[in-house]
UniProtKB/TrEMBL annotation:
An annotated GO cellular component: cytosol
EC number: 4.2.1.24
Gene3D superfamilies in the cross-refs: Aldolase class I
Protein name from the UniProt record: Delta-aminolevulinic acid dehydratase
Organism: Venenivibrio stagnispumantis
């Protein structure tokens, strides 16, 4: 009888040996927690398709931030919901805008928290697209001009890092030049480099009130079937001065995460987006999956695929579980 000489099961015998040979470990150190801030007072509104995730007005933010600090989550990613929308999303570069006031409040009261701002326009435009419109499409270069104003305004308010998510060509270069010429050469750029035109953003658009009024985002976000184009996007962003690059969504794009990790030598973030969160929450609620275990398996997979940083609505739950 020819028994196997190599028995990989030896190293799976019990939890002690499994711990010793485990290759991927989750740590709170790599997590970024997204937060939605809405203009107004006394607002705490749960997002129906994202159980456990809320929109807060600034006066209620401490309810969320106390917990984030207590759990030792290093950074938050801020999204704003303004009271006033217009054609160009001018609240994004208003020094008294919702995000600017939120940043000042957070930096004053939670100086230890690292504040990253999402840099886009869709939550702020009346039409819900990610920039200035021209002939029913987003005008790239006109949008870049407003993006420069937006990041300067975020920097002035005290943002630690900016994260452009609009998929405009040349946005990293435009931001780097704007920040440097205003003296903010210390503020890093985390670029949403390979952001796909994904249907997984559905719940976010409800959360942030940013669904396009007509058409879709396929003239600026990437086609879901493309792999090589993601490498070109990342290469360009690095050339333009990105400090961190990102793949978004995460779960349906693990191959892209792995390939970028293997091809470039730069910190890589992955965004575990709203639809990925909602699917796990919904199936968990129905009792069809073990929600906590599927959550940990999913986040572990994203890390194993090569993500150094994970942006996730599960950040607080994960932090609690691995504490
Ligand atoms: C805005 C933006 C989106 C997300 C982050 N920034 C939505 C979009 O492009 O429509 C998605 C986040 C998520 O689904 O969790 N440009
Ligand atoms: Zn946008």
């Amino acid at each position: 009888m020819a028994f196997p000489t190599n028995r990989l099961r030896r190293l799976r015998k019990n939890e002690n040996i499994r711990r010793l040979v485990r290759e991927t470990h989750l740590s709170v150190d790599n997590l970024i927690y997204p937060i939605f801030v809405e203009d107004g007072v006394n607002i705490i509104k749960e997002i129906p398709s994202m159980p456990g995730i809320f929109r807060y007005s600034i006066d209620n933010l401490s309810k969320e931030l106390d917990e984030v600090v207590e759990l030792n989550i290093p950074a938050i990613l801020l999204f704003g919901i303004p009271s006033h929308k217009d054609e160009i999303g001018s609240d994004t570069f208003n020094d008294e805008g919702i995000i600017q006031r939120a940043i000042r409040y957070i930096k004053q009261n939670y100086p230890q928290l690292y504040v990253i701002t999402d840099v886009c326009f869709c939550e702020y435009t009346s039409h819900g697209h990610c920039g200035v419109l021209h002939n029913h499409d987003v005008d790239n270069d006109a949008t870049l001009e407003n993006t420069k104003k937006q990041v300067i305004s975020h920097a002035k308010a005290g943002a630690d890092m900016v994260a452009p998510s609009g998929m405009m060509d040349g946005v990293v270069k435009a931001i780097r030049e704007a920040l440097d010429s205003a003296g903010y050469y210390d503020i890093p750029i985390m670029s949403y480099s390979a952001k796909y035109a994904s249907s997984y953003y559905g719940p976010f658009r409800e959360a942030a009130d940013s669904t396009p009024a007509f058409g879709d985002r396929r003239t600026y976000q990437m086609d879901i079937g493309n792999r090589l184009e993601a490498l070109r996007e990342v290469a360009l962003d690095i050339e333009e001065g990105a400090d961190i690059v990102m793949v978004k969504p995460a779960l349906a794009y693990l191959d892209i995460i792995r390939e970028i990790k293997d091809s470039f030598n730069i910190p890589l973030a992955a965004y575990n987006v709203s639809g990925e969160y909602s699917m796990i929450k919904a199936a968990g609620k129905l009792g069809w999956i073990d929600e906590k275990k599927v959550m940990l398996e999913t986040i572990t997979a994203i890390k194993r695929a090569g993500a150094d940083i994970i942006i996730t609505y599960f950040a607080k739950e994960i932090a609690k579980m691995i504490k």
